[in-house]
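Now for a typical sample entry:
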Amino acid sequence: MKAEAVKKYRPYAGVNLPGRSWPEKTITKAPVWCSVDLRDGNQALVQPMDLKKKLVLFELLVDCGFKEIEVGFPSASQVEYDFARTLIDDGLIPNDVTIQVLTPAREHLIKKSFEAVKGAKNVVMHLYNSTSTLQRRAVFKMSREEITALGVHGAEVIKAEAAHYPETNFRFEYSPESFTGTELDFALSICEAVMDVWQPTPENPVIINLPATVEMTTPNVYADQIEWFCLNMKNRESALISLHAHNDRGCAVAATELALMAGGDRVEGTLFGNGERTGNVDMVTLALNMFTQGVDPELDLHNITRLIKVSEYVTAIPVHVRHPYAGELVYTAFSGSHQDAINKGMALCEEEKNEHWEVPYLPIDPTDVGRTYESIIRINSQSGKGGVAYVMDKEFGVKMPKKMHPEFGAIIQSVTDKAGRELEPSDIWNAFDAEYLKNTRPYCLSSFNVVKRHIDNDEKASSAEIEAVVEVEGEKKTIVADGNGPLDAFCSALKNGLTPDFTLARYHEHALTKSSSSKAVAYIQLELADGVTKWGVGIDTDIIVASIKAVLSALNRAV
C-alpha cells in the first residue's frame, strides 16, 4: 500500500451529542427480531435460492422463533413473487408470524407487492428510497425536496393500496436507505414526512428502519446517530426504531449492540451474517452475546448444528471454523495452558455444582447450543498434559492422577512431534495402551491367587498370603509371599530376587466408567533404589488384579 493513498480518504464526521446516555446503559431484554435472510441474504448469493431452498430456510426461521420474516422483494422477480404466493396459498405461515416484503417507492412496484401478499394474515409493507448525500448527487441527481416527495408519494400509495385488502393486518415500515450516509436532519425530516402520511399511533406504531447500508465509521457513531434521532423525532412513542447494520468495517454486531443501548427497538439481520459485500449483522452472534450475559434472546438456537447445515445448504457459503459460537473450532483448545485451565475449570464446575457457568476460555456452555464436550480439547504439538488428561477422561473414562499427567503428556508430545498432525482420541488411547497396558516385557502376569486372608480385628492386623506365576522374559516363575495385604505380599515376592528393589510411591484407583463391563483401573507409581520413578497402569474386573498389573506395568517401564 502506498503511503500517499491514504490522502484519498477523510474521517467520518461525528455527531454533536453532548450528554449522550447510551454509554451508561446495558441490554436487558431482547429486541424485536426480523430475519432478512430470504431477501437481503438471498440477493447477495452468487446463485440465489430456488423455491425449494427458500421453503427449507423459512421453516428453519419459524422454528428458531422469528416472528417477523422478510420473505422477499416480490416486485423484483417472478421467483420472489411466487415464493410469497406459495407461502400464502399453501398455508405455510403460522398465525403468529408476520411476513415482510420490500418495495421501492414506485407506484407500479408497490401495487405488484400488494398483489403478492394478498390473503396473508399479517404483513409488514417495507418502503424504501435512498436518501444519502452521495447518491442524491451521483446517482439520482435529485434535491432533498425531490427525494422527500418520492418517499411521501410511496407512502401515500401504500396507504391507499392497504385499504383494498381489509382481510390483512398491515403494518408499515420506512427505510431511508443509506441512513449512515445521510445528513441526520434530512433523515429525520423525510421519516417524519412519511409518518405524517401514515399517521401512526402508540397502539399501531410505524417501523422506522435506520440502516447502516454501508458501515462507514466506528460503532459508537452509529449509536450516537440512533440516540440523536430518537431524541429529536416527534411522536417517538408511535415508532419502533429498527436497526439494520451491514458489516463493511467488521463491526456490525458491536454497532447494533450499542445502537440498542441508544434506543433501538428492533433488529433486522441474517443468520451468520450473510448479506451484500461483507454481510449483514449476524443475528446468531448477536443473540448468543445476549445469552452469555443472562438475557433471554427469545430465539431458539439450541441446535446450532441444524442452523449451520441449513444455512450452508441454502447459501452454499460455509460457516467459518472460527465463527463465534458456531464455528467448528470455537469450543476447541489446542494450547496446553488453555487446555489445562479448561480441564480444571470443568472439574471445579462439576465439583461445586454452581448454577452459574464459569469455565476459563469458554464464555458459553457448548451443550446449550447442541455441541458436546468431546471436542473441547484436541491434541496437537501445541497441546499440554492437562489436555491429554482431559481427552483420556472424557473419551475413555481414564482419570489419571495429576502426578501422572507430566509423564503421559511427554509421551503424547513425542507422538505428535513424529506424526506432525492433530491426534485423534484413538491415537491417544493407542499410545496409552502400548505404553502402559501392553508393555509386558520383561514381566508378565500368568496367574494370581490369594491363598489366605486374615481380616483385621482387635488382636491382629490384616494379612494375606498370595501365590502367583510371573513370566520373566518368557520363563514362568512361581512366587509365594505374605504381607499386610495382597498387593504388599505380591510386591514382597517380586523383590525377593525376581526384580530390582523398589518402593510403592503412589496408588490410585477408580471404576472405569466408559467400559461396557464392570472394570477398575489402578495407577501405581514405583520408585527404584536409584531414585527413578515410573507410573504403571492396570485394568481388570478385579481391583486387586488391576493393582498387580499396574505394578508390573511400572516395572516394565523402569527396567
About this structure: The mean pLDDT is 93.
